[in-house]
Amino acid sequence: MRQNGKVVLISGGASGIGFAVADKCMREGARVAVIDKQPIDLPGPQLLGFRGDVADEAFVKLTVARVHEIWGKVDGLVNNAGIMENQAIDEVTDDHWERHLNVNVKGAMLMIKHVFPLMKAAGQGAIVNCSSIMAYTSAPRSVAYTVSKTAILGLTRAVAMDGAPHRIRANTVCPGTVDTPLYRRYLETLEDPAAAHARFNDMYPLGRIGTPEDVANVCGFLLSDEAKWITGQSFIVDGGYSIKGTNE
């Protein structure tokens, strides 16, 4: 019960990694507030759900204030909300570019901006930003996504420095391919989803893509007091993908 008594706010918590983090935190004793554009189906008295856009500052400010009004504090924040759409550099439109930066970067910044004063007043807090292995690697037709997820690393370091005098920690998790609803929707756009899924699994030295729980386990650790001397760091959770070389 390492989250016992804590209040954790999670963006993008209605499905996938965010859902797994919310479930884990509640099972470890936390009260959890979830923000998402989608319907939120996590039952129990330990949960608050708010539907809205993390890039909308008025909504974020109101939501954080409401969580504080109900539960009196925010101990942990997980910025998981994000989008990924494919366009090559010579295809990028203003709308595509701005949408990625607004949701993936501005949304995380706004969540931190409005939670930070509560953590500062409490003299403690833990922030986990969800980036991607694409902050270290890249793929074709992923310019906006790669840039936005790389920016999260800088955001985390800057927040860690601002937060350190107040015992507010900030860290990043960088997952590889994870079996989420977003991933499944992507597979369905391909000619042979089953074959594509097999190829993705074969890309990983540990023999499979990740599960949301694989990432949630790392987030849970970083939110907990077990990580109280860790800040400003990036944790790659990718089944060994980023270290794989070749001798062919």
Radius of gyration (CA) equals 18 Å
Distance between the termini: 48 Å
Strand portion:
15-25%
Order of helices and strands: EHEEHEHEHEHHHE
- Considering the protein shown, what is the CATH homologous superfamily of the largest domain? NAD(P)-binding Rossmann-like Domain
- CATH architectural grouping of the largest domain: 3-Layer(aba) Sandwich
Strand arrangement, major sheet: 3-2-1-4-5-6-7
Task: Supply the number of structural domains.
Answer: 2
Number of strands: 7
What layout of secondary structure does this protein have?
Layout: E1 7-11, H1 16-27, E2 31-36, E3 47-51, H2 57-71, E4 76-79, H3 94-122, E5 125-130, H4 143-163, E6 168-175, H5 181-187, H6 193-202, H7 212-223, E7 234-237
Parallel strand pairs: 1-2, 1-4, 2-3, 4-5, 5-6, 6-7
Helix pairs in contact: 1-7, 2-3, 3-4
In short:
By secondary structure, the chain is α/β, with parallel strands linked by helices. The protein has helices spanning 16-27, 57-71, 94-122, 143-163, 181-187, 193-202, 212-223; strands at 7-11, 31-36, 47-51, 76-79, 125-130, 168-175, 234-237. It folds into two domains: 7-175 and 212-237, NAD(P)-binding Rossmann-like Domain (Rossmann fold, 3-Layer(aba) Sandwich), CATH 3.40.50; 178-209.
Q: Any key phrases for this structure?
A:
single chain; 248 residues; alpha/beta; Rossmann fold; 2 domains; seven-stranded parallel beta sheet; 43% helix
Describe this structure in words.
α2 (57-71) runs parallel beside α3 (94-122) and α3 runs parallel beside α4. The radius of gyration is 18 Å and the shape is globular. It is built from seven helices and seven strands, in the order βαββαβαβαβαααβ. The model has no long low-confidence stretch (mean pLDDT 95). The protein is of the alpha/beta class and 248 residues long. The chain has helices at 16-27, 57-71, 94-122, 143-163, 181-187, 193-202, 212-223; strands at 7-11, 31-36, 47-51, 76-79, 125-130, 168-175, 234-237. Helices cover 43% and strands 15% of the residues. The protein has two domains: 7-175 and 212-237, 3-Layer(aba) Sandwich (Rossmann fold), CATH 3.40.50.720; 178-209. Strands 3-2-1-4-5-6-7 form a seven-stranded parallel sheet, sandwiched between helices. α1 links the parallel β1 (7-11) and β2 (31-36).
